[in-house]
């Protein structure tokens, strides 16, 4: 599962900052760049909502394999897509595949591991998700800038297709039987960590979309910083979660760190050194938010439902953040746009304080 996740997320990570850059290179503006991420994440969320039904019919293994194909196969066609509408259409198809992969991946961690290994397993899954982002978010941008976009598009197709090999070797697992009957119960139990996750993911979506545009020559360094610190934060959180009196207890501090990082970035877009420090600070907080919110949801709801809820928060937030900044930047600039995201995270702090107090 971890190997299939790493390969699939490598293809995803290559194109997350590159597609918006490709849109701008075709003559479109910031709104279209933000929309490319927004459409991708919107399709991701739509697919995530139907994963439980698909899993009941096909099983986790085949739904995960379908996700890898839909994510990778359309990527080379981006070479021919010089019109923003075609880019958005391909992003939609790829987003559907990514939605299937994300829900199945995190749900399988809960299905394949015993309860006493769940926090550590979530931390390992965080590594499998984070290492590709650490390597390929900055590398994709660098290669596209120096060698051209075509090699990036081809690699983004090959890696998810290769992931089919370990994915098809996954063991058979039994889906939850009560998925259809406890949706409202899941919402009631998970809405607090869900909103906290949204508070972090909107910032991440905005950063990975606009850092290559805003920082230009320093974009690869900034993307490396945010992915490295996010990976570190998530991994550390997986190891200390059981020592802080239960899941969700680290959410207030980590969300506050997210807000501080976004605020610093808002004022550091003209100062690359400050911008890099800001995204690194954001990454530490966001990594902890990811792991702690996921484990908090797993202890409150069945694996498939909790996975859907968490992944919807992650990916819907990324899309919303990219679209929000792309829309707002024309009126209030990058300082105002990222300042709004920092304010949103601050507004969620009271909810974060309560997220770990009740089951």
What characteristics describe this protein?
Growth Hormone, Chain: A; mainly alpha; single chain; 359 residues
Could you walk me through the main structural features you see in this protein, from its secondary elements to its overall organization?
The two termini are 28 Å apart. 63% of the residues are buried. The radius of gyration is 19 Å and the shape is globular. The mean pLDDT is 88. The protein has a single domain, classed as Up-down Bundle (Growth Hormone, Chain: A), CATH 1.20.1250.20. By secondary structure, the chain is mainly α. The protein has helices at residues 2-15, 18-25, 30-58, 60-72, 84-112, 118-146, 150-162, 164-167, 183-214, 219-240, 251-266, 272-298, 303-347, 349-354.
Compute the number of helices: 14
CATH homology-level superfamily: MFS general substrate transporter like domains
Give the C-alpha Rg: 19 Å
Question: How many beta-strand runs?
Answer: 0
Quaternary arrangement of the chains shown? Answer: single chain
Main beta-sheet annotation: none
Structural topology:
Elements: H1 2-15, H2 18-25, H3 30-58, H4 60-72, H5 84-112, H6 118-146, H7 150-162, H8 164-167, H9 183-214, H10 219-240, H11 251-266, H12 272-298, H13 303-347, H14 349-354
Short description:
The protein has helices spanning 2-15, 18-25, 30-58, 60-72, 84-112, 118-146, 150-162, 164-167, 183-214, 219-240, 251-266, 272-298, 303-347, 349-354.
């Amino acid at each position: 599962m971890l190997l299939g996740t790493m390969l699939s997320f490598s293809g995803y990570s290559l194109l997350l900052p590159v597609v918006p850059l490709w849109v701008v290179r075709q003559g479109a503006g910031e709104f279209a760049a933000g929309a490319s991420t927004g459409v991708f994440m919107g399709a991701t969320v739509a697919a995530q909502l139907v994963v439980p039904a698909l899993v009941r019919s096909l099983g986790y293994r085949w739904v995960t394999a379908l996700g890898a194909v839909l994510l990778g196969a359309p990527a080379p066609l981006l070479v021919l897509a010089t019109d923003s509408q075609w880019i958005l259409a391909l992003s939609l198809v790829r987003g559907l595949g990514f939605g299937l992969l994300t829900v199945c991946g995190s749900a399988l961690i809960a299905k394949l591991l015993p309860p006493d290994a769940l926090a550590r397993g979530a931390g390992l899954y965080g590594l499998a998700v984070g290492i590709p982002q650490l390597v390929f978010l900055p590398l994709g941008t660098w290669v596209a800038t120096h060698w051209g976009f075509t090699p990036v598009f081809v690699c983004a197709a090959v890696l998810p297709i290769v992931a089919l090999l370990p994915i098809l070797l996954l063991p058979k697992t039994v889906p939850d039987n009560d998925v259809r009957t406890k949706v409202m119960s899941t919402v009631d139990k998970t809405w607090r960590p869900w909103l906290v996750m949204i508070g972090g993911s909107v910032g991440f979506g905005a950063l990975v979309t606009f850092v290559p545009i805003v920082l230009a020559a320093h974009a690869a360094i900034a993307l490396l910083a945010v992915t490295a610190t996010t990976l570190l934060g998530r991994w550390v959180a997986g190891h200390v979660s059981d020592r802080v009196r239960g899941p969700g207890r680290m959410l207030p501090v980590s969300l506050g760190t997210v807000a501080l990082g976004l605020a610093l970035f808002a004022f550091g877009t003209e100062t690359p050194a400050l911008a890099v420090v800001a995204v690194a600070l954001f990454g530490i907080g966001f990594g902890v938010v990811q792991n702690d919110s996921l484990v908090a949801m797993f202890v409150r709801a069945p694996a498939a439902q909790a996975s859907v809820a968490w992944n919807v928060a992650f990916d819907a937030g990324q899309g919303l953040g990219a679209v929000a900044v792309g829309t707002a930047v024309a009126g209030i600039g990058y300082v105002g746009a990222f300042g709004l995201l920092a304010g949103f995270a601050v507004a969620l702090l009271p909810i974060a304080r309560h997220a770990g107090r009740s089951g």
